[in-house]
Amino acid sequence: MTRKIAVLPGDGIGPEVIAEAVRVLEATGRTFELENALVGGAAYDDGGHPLPAATLDLCRAADAVLLGAVGGPQYDHIQPPELRPEVGALLPLRRELNLYANVRPAKTMRPLLSASPLKNHRGAMDLVVVRELTGGIYFSQPRERRNDGKTAVDTCIYHRHEIVRIAQHAFKIARTRRHEITSVDKANVLETSRLWRETLDEMAAENRDVKVTHMLVDNCAMQLVRDPSQFDVILTENMFGDILSDEASMITGSLGLLPSASLSDAKGGKVFGLYEPVHGAAPDIAGQGRANPIAAILSVALMLRYSFEDDEMADRIEAAVEHALDAGLRTADVFEKGTRLVSTSEFGSAVCFKLAAGA
Ligand code: NAD
Fold first, then answer.
1. Residues 201 and 131 in one domain
2. CA atoms within 13 A on the CB side of 26
3. Whose CA is nearest to atom 13 of ligand 1?
4. Catalytic: which of 246, 267, 270, 326?
5. Residue 106 resides in a domain
6. Which atom of ligand 1 is least distant from the CA of 40?
7. Quick check: is 110 in a domain?
8. What pLDDT is stored for residue 119 in this prediction?
C-alpha cells in the first residue's frame, strides 16, 4: 500500500519540529512517499502567495498532510489580509480539503504530571476533543458591520448533515477508547444547539454501544478544571470546541505537547487528514533548537492511527515519547530541576532510538 504524505514544514519552529517528525516516520521502518512543499510565510516569500496552487495540488493528491505551523510577525501586516499566512493558507486548506472534523487528544503524560497547572487533579486526564471545524458561527453568513458602524452581526447555522458527519467521527473514536461521548452545547439558549442535541439523541439510540451524555458548555468549561479525568470524548461545535480544546490542552502542561488531526471523508477507504501540532510558529524561540518536537511527533502517531489504520505503530511512537520523558529528557518548555535539558533534535533522536529499540 502506498502512503503518500505531503509535508508542509511552514514557518518559525515548523521546519524544526517537522524535521523530527519526519525522522520518526522514517524510523518506523514503514514505507512512505514523502514530498515537501512550501506554505505560509515561506511560500509568500518565495512566490507571493501563502498557499501556492502546487502545494494545494500536492495535498489533494496525497493520502495525508503533515503541517508544521505558519505565521510570524514579519507577515502580520501584509496587504491584502488574504495574503497573510493564517488567513491565506490555513483557512483555505481546511475549506479546500473539506477538513470538517478537528480531533485533539489531550493527555497528561505521567512523567510530566508536575508540569500541569492542575497538579492536584484527581486522575490523569486522557480525553479527545472532537470539534466541528467548517460550520457554525465562524463560517455562517451574514457576517457584517451595519452601515451605521455601531451594529455588528454574526450568524450561526448548523445543518443536520454537518452534525451527523462530525458525530460519526466521534462515535468511531469513542469505540477505540472508553465508549463515552460528552456532547457539549448551549441547548438552554441556542436553536442550533437544540438541533445538535436532538440529532445526537437520535444517533445515540442507534449506537447503543457508546454512552452519550449532554453537557452545557459553561458547565463543561468548569468541569474540565474541576476533574478532567471524567471525560473520554468531548464532541462539540466549532466555537465551543475552539475554546474548550485550548483549555484542555493547557492542562497537559505545555502547548508543545499537543497533536491534532483535521479529518475529512474517507478517500478510497482511507480517512484523509491533515496532521499538525496545536501550537503556532513560536517566532520567539525559532532557530534556537529549543522547540519541543513532541506535538509534531505525536501528530505522526495520529496520522498512522486515523489515516493508515496502523494502531500498533501509533502506540509504539507514543510509548517511545513517554520512554524518552521517563529517561529524564526535557526540552526547555517542560524542563525542571532533576531532568536533563536537551535540544529539539536530541529529543527527536531519543524517540527514534527508543522506537528502533522496540519501546
Ligand atoms: P505560538 O503557539 O506560536 O506560541 C505561544 C507560546 O508557546 C510561545 O511562547 C512559544 O515559544 C511557545 N511554544 C509554542 N510551541 C512550542 C513548542 N513546540 N515548544 C516550546 N514552546 C512552544 O502562538 P503565538 O505566539 O500566538 O503565535 C505565533 C505565530 O504563530 C503567529 O504568527 C500566529 O499567527 C501563528 N500561529 C499559527 C498556528 C498554525 O499554524 N496552526 C497556530 C497558532 C498560531
1. yes
2. 9
3. 282
4. 246
5. no
6. 40
7. no
8. 64
* Contact residues of ligand 1, CB 6 A cut-off: 13, 17, 69-72, 86, 90, 255-256, 276, 279-285, 291-292, 295, 333
Q: Residues 223, 292: one domain?
A: no
- The ligand 1 atom at the shortest distance from the C-alpha of residue 86 is 34
Between the CA of 188 and the centroid of ligand 1 the distance, in Å, is 35
C-alpha cell recorded at residue 77: 501586516
Identify the domain boundary among 202, 225, 251.
Answer: 251
**Same structural domain for residues 129 and 243?**
yes
Catalytic residue, from 4, 172, 227, 242: name it: 242
Tell me the per-residue pLDDT of 143-197, one tens digit each, with 9 for 90 and over: 888 888 899 999 999 999 999 999 999 999 999 999 999 999 999 999 999 999 9
Asked if 334 and 231 sit in the same domain, the reply is no
Q: Of the residues 251, 266, 298, which one is the last residue of a structural domain?
A: 251
Annotation says 11 is catalytic: no
pLDDT surpasses 80 at 252: yes
Considering the domain architecture, whether residues 77 and 62 belong to the same structural domain is answered as yes
Atom from ligand 1 closest to the CA of residue 292: 19
Which residues constitute the domain of residue 137? 117-251
Asked if 126 is an active-site residue, the reply is no
Query: What's the gap in Å between 101 CA and the centre of ligand 1?
Result: 22
Q: What is the CATH number of the domain that holds 321?
A: 3.40.718.10
Residue 104 covered by a domain: no
- The answer to whether residue 179 is domain-embedded is yes
Give how many domains the chain has, as a whole number: 2
pLDDT of residue 121: 58
